[in-house]
Amino acid sequence: MFKKSAIATAIVIAAYEVGTRWWETQRIEKNFNYWRNLCTPDVAERAECLRQSYDISSTGIRIHIDTYPQPNANAPVLIFNHGVRSYGRMMAGLIMGFYDQGYTVVAGDRIGQGFSGGQRGVMTFEQNAQNAVDIARWTKTRFGTPVFMFGTSMGGPVTYCATAQGAPIDAIACFNLYDFSPGSPDIPDLFGTLAQRFSTRFWFLLKPLSWVRLPWKKVNAKAWASVIDEREPHMNAIWSKDSLPLNFMSLKFIISLANSAPLIPFAQNQLPVLVINPNRDRMSDPAITQRNYERLGGPKHYAEVPYGHYAFAEGFGRSIAEAADPWFKQHGLEKARGK
Which of these ranges, 47-56, 114-123, 297-306, has the smallest mean pLDDT? Predict the structure, then answer.
């Protein structure tokens, strides 16, 4: 009886996965330009005119990279790391904010997200961090120095972990900073108790089902409804219909979020780190980012900005770029002077 029930359950799960992946593929193919709905028409046109796209290989997957090069070949370079339900082009307003500050911008879509290859949501946090390392190495080879890195939401810890793993970066800025180490108090606040319950000692029991995916908005419904700045309520519905970010999260990914300590603990950090905390964030308590900033060693600086977790308002990109620019210039100049 148990064997028959197990087989029936496996068939239902497999059928569900086949159906959702077919539905997902259909939506993605029809929505390649949906990102234009998330920025002003003039920002979209400028981004289209400036953008040059490339593919690299990382973690055995084709990784898509958009670049927005300055006319000046010696311009500083800013690598942009998107969040867990985002991708490069979706944040065109933020990218153009840094471009207008004089940066060549490099925006890669990590495994299974945006325009990159890989099964949607079937990945680990470690793979995301390695993608960022490989994007940084490609950027260093193509553009030279100085090279900086900026990450929003989960892109914040991806940025920190990538530099801890040896990404060739001069300084970083994290718009949100989280700790995904085992037992971290950040986990239940960010992803509910589901991720916290999946500890390393139980992982071997779930490996056969690691590919099973759950709807992102079911994993943490409160977070799903609170991502966009509360002053832009109309944007939440527009954002949630974009099919290129993650709509599903695999058990493999959820478990990795509770078991991904950075190679260099925060307290032992020596890289220049700017932490930008959106103090109107409703998805994650701003106290989490502030707590992790206080744990950081090395050269660091803290700034708060009056925005939610994500924002698409016209001035958002300019405000964040202006907050990060002095930090990057300070540490780029220090390196050039041999300090």
Answer: 114-123
- The fold of 31-336 is Rossmann fold (3.40.50)
CA distance 168 to 120: 28
- Predicted local confidence at residue 320, as pLDDT: 97
CA distances from 293 to 78, 116, 331 (A): 21, 31, 18
Q: What tokens does 256 get?
A: 């990795």
User: Alpha-carbon distance 279 to 319, whole Å?
Assistant: 14
Bridge partners of 127, per DSSP, are none
**Bridge partners (DSSP) listed for residue 214:** 249
State residue 24's pLDDT score.
56
> What's the whole-model pTM score?
0.89
Percent of the chain at pLDDT > 70 equals 82
Residue 327 has a pLDDT of 96
What local confidence, expressed as pLDDT, does residue 10 receive?
Answer: 55
Give me the pLDDT at residue 110, please. 97
